[in-house]
Design brief:
2 copies of one chain form a homodimer.
Chain A lengths: L26 H6 L1 H7 L2 E5 L4 E3 L7 E7 L2 E6 L5 E7 L4 E2 L1 H5 L8 E4 L3 E7 H8 L3 H27 L2 H18 L8 E3 L4 H8 L3 H13 L3 E4 L2 E4 L2 H10 L1
Helix pairs in contact in A: 6-9, 7-8
The structure holds a DNA duplex (30 and 30 nucleotides).
Chain lengths: 245, 245
DNA sequence: CGTACAATTGAGTGAGTTCAAGTGGGGTGG
DNA sequence: CCACCCCACTTGAACTCACTCAATTGTACG
């Protein structure tokens, strides 16, 4: 059975059968009362690659969760410079912040990297849901905390790490996220839609330099990206680079 | 009357007379019911420069608000590398996050840059207080949102801006924060305790390079730091550099 | 007057950039 | 089915911003 969900594929009509639901913010509820989620879900929609899901400054009307495909979470300047804060994978919540501060403008934009399918909930329903049980409340709290930890570690990466170190860190992080969602193939590779341009914008370096760094790590047998798939060949070395540089 | 509060000076016994209170997270309550704050305050303490107020991984027991002095909010690596996420000024809350996720370990450390005086509140009291009125709730929500915006803009700075641009951005931000707290002297200068080393760790560059960049901006007549005070000479130029580079 | 720490300056190096040209695969239209 | 084009990726060469190492100056403090 294929663990990878094709980008843009719509979710099953019943959330009970959704293979991603257990990994979402409402995972605890799925286990306890799966029907609740189906009832609250007010939208399922496919968004084509490149489309903007949310523009910086807009006030998010709904909370969306990604079912299939990858998205970007970024800040753009008029002169073309862009900083990608993170990639969003199946199971991730768009604008987790919006749940905490509804009615406040988004501090960044979100766009689809591949074709994407999303499930929508009203903000109020989501808030009620997330405070519905102890387990659910804990999960929500942990998720917000992780977001903050994540931002701080990215701050550290961008400020103090070399291109190699940042790249290794990013790959390691994505690996971990892909693994927990059961999207890792048996041979240790996984679907990797970002272009070198996206990596550059995430790492704060140029595409040319991403290319060279990638080539070096490939030559060293650490990991490689080929045909839209990433394979880690030497996880130990990867960890070391991510940790030390 | 002096607007600047001497680092390490203890707050007045009554919060009603505190000149910083209106700018804190509990500002709305100070206006409506100043006595409430005095009653909840369970600690006032002086901390010497260099002392650690909170270590990464610790679980914060109280919420502290700075009355006088500056503090640092940072992440340290064993090999000496450090990334300062931001500076904390009088009126700022230590671990605003702790209010949102009590009982979770701090994702970074906080240490006193100068002598510092702080007021302490129990986490539960603070949470109750912050949800005590509509105005208070809005203020809290806005503060958390600003924190997030701030982290995102720092991410952008570190990723995509030159040393000059980052420095200008930082100075501009600190200026704004100092101004709103009424700590700006009439001649447009203000007390600036950070050493070049701190700026380096905040900006993700070396002290040597901070020094050169600072020297260049001084030569250009944009701003200068002298005798622990920062004076902006050409705010227009500063804005332009901060915005464009 | 010595010590200590912050700021400054110089010289050499290196990581990452810019500009520019070339490769290769996949899709499309003739 | 081939020619063409487009896009992502790749490579080279020159350059520059920022780093490292190291020495010097200035300043506060005992």
């Amino acid at each position: 059975m294929p663990r990878e969900i094709e980008p843009g594929k719509l979710p099953p009509s019943s959330c009970r059968e959704c293979q991603i639901a257990p990994f979402t913010i409402y995972g605890p509820t799925i286990r306890e009362a799966p029907n609740k989620i189906c009832q609250l879900r007010c939208e399922t929609r496919k968004v084509s690659a490149g489309r903007t899901l949310l523009r910086e400054g807009d006030i998010p009307q709904k909370i969306h969760v990604i079912y299939s495909g990858w998205a970007l979470y970024y800040k753009q300047l008029s002169d073309g410079r862009r900083q990608i804060a993170s990639f969003l994978l199946p199971g991730d919540t768009l604008m987790l912040e919006a749940i905490c501060f509804p009615r406040l403008p988004a501090p960044f934009s979100v766009k689809a990297l591949t074709d994407v399918a999303i499930c929508g909930f009203t903000t109020t329903d989501m808030i009620t849901l997330l405070h519905g049980s102890d387990a659910q409340e804990r999960k929500f709290s942990r998720a917000r905390h992780q977001l903050l930890r994540f931002l701080h570690s990215r701050l550290f990466d961008l400020g103090r790490r070399s291109a190699r170190g940042r790249l290794a860190q990013l790959v390691l992080e994505l690996c971990a996220r892909v693994k927990t969602r059961g999207m890792m193939a048996d041979d240790g590779s996984f679907s990797f839609p970002p272009r070198q341009e996206h990596l550059a914008d995430a790492l704060g370096i140029t595409t040319v330099h991403v290319n060279r760094t990638l080539a070096q790590l490939r030559r060293e047998g650490v990991f490689s990206i080929e045909g839209g798939r990433l394979s880690v060949h030497d996880e130990e070395a990867l960890r070391q680079i991510a940790h030390e540089e």
